[in-house]
Amino acid sequence: MTDYLAAARAVADEMCAVRREIHRHPELGNREFRTAAFIEDHLRRLGIETRRVTETAVVGTLTGGRPGRCAALRADMDALPLTEATGCAFASENPGVMHACGHDVHMAAVLGAARLLAGRRDTLPGSVIFLFQPDEEGYGGAERMIRAGCLDGVDAVFGAHVSSTIAAGRAGVRFGKFYAAANLFDVTVKGRSAHGAERENGVDALAAAAEMIPALIALPDSFPGERCVVTVGTITAGEPRVTELRPTVAQQRQPAPAGCQILSDSGLGAGVIVGKVTEFYTSHSLPHYLESLQKLLCYHQKFRP
C-alpha cells in the first residue's frame, strides 16, 4: 500500500515553491489567464490531459490503470483586490491584487495531489478529475463550470479550505453546512420633502436609513438555530428624497419577492418611510440562503395606514 503521507512530505519543498510562484502572480476573478496557463503546464508535464471549460477554468483528467469510480479534487484560482503589505520574499508582484484567501495554497495542494496520483496511475482505480475554478469570490465560476459539464460522470467531489485557526498537520471536518453563501440586496428608502423649518411635515429618508441599519443587522436574531449574517456595506445618500443601501454589486439580478417590504415609522412626524427590497443578487449557490434572506427581510414587515 502506498504511503501517501510520506510521498507528500518528499515533495513538500517543491510544492511550497509552486505555491509561492502562484502567490507572486495573483489574478482577479475571470482574469486568471497566467494562472490557468501555469496550471495547464504543470498538469501536462505530469501526463495529465487538460481542457478549458470556460475562458480560465481548467479541468485535468487522470485515468487510472484499474477500473473504479471517478472522484474530483477542486481548487479555486482567483485572488482579491487587496494590496499586500506582508513583506514576504514571495509577495504579490501584481499591484492591488493579493492571494489573501488561501487560493494559492488550494491550487498548490491539488497540483501536489496530481503529482502523487500521476506517479501511481498504473495502480490507481478509476479516474480523478482536477477542477480549477475561477471567480470563486465573484459571480458564479463554479456554476458556469458545472453548466459546461465538468461534473459529468463524477461520483464525488472533494475540496478543502485552509484556516489559520487549525494547527498545521491537522484537518477540520464538520457534518452538514459549513461555509455560507452570500446573497446580496439593495434597499431604497424614499422620504417626503418639506420646508427645512417644518420637518414635522416631511420624512427624512437619510435618518430613516440610518435607523434601519442596526435593525437589519439584528434581523438574524429572529432565526435561532440559523447561522445567518446581514451586513450593510455601503450607503449612498444625498439625492432629494432618496437614499439607497447597497452592500455591493453582483452580476446576476433577480426581482425582489412580491410584497417583500420593510416599513418603518420615521419618528419625525406624519408619514411612513418605505424601504423596499428592490433587487436580490444571488451567489449562484445554495438557494437555502436566498430563501433565508427573503425570510429575514419579510419577517419584520410593519404596516401603517
Provide keyphrases for this structure.
five-stranded mixed sheet, 21% strand, Alpha-Beta Plaits, 2 domains, disordered C terminus, alpha+beta, Aminopeptidase, 305 residues
Task: Give a nutshell description of this structure.
The protein has two domains: 155 residues, Aminopeptidase (3-Layer(aba) Sandwich); 116 residues, Alpha-Beta Plaits, CATH 3.30.70.
What does this protein look like?
This protein is an alpha+beta fold. It is built from seven helices and eleven strands. The chain folds into two domains: 4-158, Zn peptidases (Aminopeptidase); 184-299, Alpha-Beta Plaits. The chain starts with a helix and ends in a 6-residue tail after the last helix. Residues 248-290 and 292-305 have low confidence and may be disordered.
Q: In terms of topology, how is this protein built?
A:
Blueprint: H1 4-10, H2 12-24, H3 33-45, E1 49-52, E2 58-63, E3 66-76, H4 103-118, E4 125-133, H5 141-147, E5 156-158, E6 184-190, H6 205-218, E7 235-239, E8 242-245, E9 253-255, E10 261-264, E11 273-281, H7 287-299
Parallel strand pairs: 3-4, 3-5
Antiparallel strand pairs: 1-2, 2-4, 6-8, 6-11, 7-8, 9-11, 10-11
Helix pairs in contact: 2-4
Main sheet overview? 6 strands, antiparallel
Specify the structural class. Answer: alpha+beta
The CATH class designation of the largest domain is Alpha Beta
Proportion of beta-strand residues: 15-25%
Shape: elongated
What count of domains describes the coordinates? 2
